[in-house]
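Slide 14.
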Amino acid sequence: MAEGNSSKSSTLLCQVKKADANHRMDEATNLLRSKHFPSPCKVVYLGNVANTIISLLEHPETPTFTTPPSYNEQKWALETTSGQLKISIRSVSYWGLGLFNSSYLNIIKLEGPMNLRSRLIYDLVSSLPDKPWEFKHLSSAKRWMRKEFADIDEKVNQNNWQELVKYSNNRFIEVLELMKQTKEKVSKKVNLTDSNQYWNCERAKVSIASADFDLDLARGALADGNAPAIERAIARIEASLIEADPETGVHDSPIETNDLTKEIIVISDIGVTEDKVIEANVNTINQIDSISQEEVLPLIDLTTKTEEE
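Slide 15: predicted structure.
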């Protein structure tokens, strides 16, 4: 059960909306494979929730089935890891008549830092078309929970999901507020600083306007629950503010045409103790004295016999 921020694990129950036969289990290793796997394997119906979770993990280990599917390809259990996050998912039927099981739920257990658990669930809820904590057959789900999880009911389960979503949402709100405050500070510095050889006030104001625009985009992405879009906007805001800041932004002034007529390379004479600087024209610095074309090199005829021979 998802507890406070100091908790090391979260247990979540969710409704599986649909499943297909696009995956297999390697019978030799119990590893999850695609439906095109050539070796002996079993058909697995992962379901939309498990399939989405695996696709959201950044660097997951190949999922391993701890409970392989049997005659019912939608009843199984698997586990995997992604960095510091460990994920286990169990698929069970909670409603049906006799041999005909029509409704399945997933039991998701996450172990690892709160920020990683929260971010995965934030992305999962944003990716699914329906709220995963809402069950198709609520009365049957309640009976199943009372039987399998004495400390979880539908309200507690919903709160567990929403706690994790809220945690990531609040972190994004804090970052956007920090970006707003930083933009205001940089804007004040820009208004109090005159342009110079390396920094241009007008270009800095354009960068400030760009940061403002991306702040609005980030707020819109936050309302949609689109975490990747929020992060991309935040990265652009940071880059714009660094460029606009008179202390960190460097804007090379346009080079006049007259300045291009003669480029000068300044070379420090390290071997001389006096403060001297040698200037060399770039057009002649690479010229090296070579042997004159008119100079004739002496040839030695080795075919002539010497007197001793």
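Speaker note: Confidence is low (pLDDT under 50) at residues 1-6, 253-297, 302-309.
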